[in-house]
Design a protein that fits this description.
Blueprint lengths: L4 H17 L4 E5 L5 H8 L4 E7 L1 E2 L10 E2 L5 E5 L7 E4 L1 H14 L1 H4 L3 E4 L2 E3 L1 H12 L3 E5 L2 H6 L3 H12 L2
Parallel strand pairs: 1-2, 2-7, 3-6, 5-9
Antiparallel strand pairs: 4-5, 6-8
Helix pairs in contact: 1-2
């Protein structure tokens, strides 16, 4: 999950410029932590725009944040976030269309605005409990120090994952 900010910036600029050249009237852009510079660039163009800012993806708990089996037989989710911190999570498959659809239905209402979207606010403890309930397995949340968390990942991944989680 390495995020190359320069690649994102270059790609978004090219797509936004192409939209302007093609005469597109309205650009709906999905924005997040790593794309605020591109959001500013889009705002500088002669095109109306809105920005969809989804929370953290619930689907990440099926992949990169999935619980793993500990030596004690329990499953664990490790992160630097406080166990009680409310995390804005979104079901990207089930709920994204609701928010983007609202922008498309009323473009003037959302013009030049950031539409922050989350299915709900859930703490890491609540996420662990929900996964336990659904799977029938014991899942615990462990808050780690930034140093330990960083040491568990390749440097390029840690350089992205740490800032994304420090905001909570």
């Amino acid at each position: 999950m390495t995020v190359n900010v320069d690649q994102i910036y270059t790609r978004v600029h090219a797509r936004a410029d192409a939209a302007v050249e093609a005469g597109v009237q309205y650009l709906n852009f999905s924005t997040y932590l790593h794309t605020t510079d591109t959001e500013e660039y889009i705002r500088s163009l002669p095109i109306e725009s809105a920005f969809f800012a989804p929370g953290s993806f619930m689907q990440n708990y099926l992949s990169m944040w999935a619980p793993y089996l500990n030596d004690d037989g329990a499953y664990a989710i490790n992160n630097i976030v406080s166990p009680q911190a409310p995390l804005p999570l979104i079901d990207t498959l089930g709920d994204t269309g609701k928010y983007v659809g609202a922008i498309l239905a009323e473009p003037d209402k959302y013009k030049a605005k950031v539409f922050s979207a989350a299915t709900g606010l859930y703490s890491s403890d609540e996420v662990s409990q929900a996964i336990s309930k659904v799977t029938g397995k014991v899942v615990k949340y462990n808050q780690m120090s930034v140093e330990v968390f960083r040491s568990l990942m390749p440097p390029a991944v840690a350089d992205d994952a740490v800032p994304m989680n420090e905001v909570y």
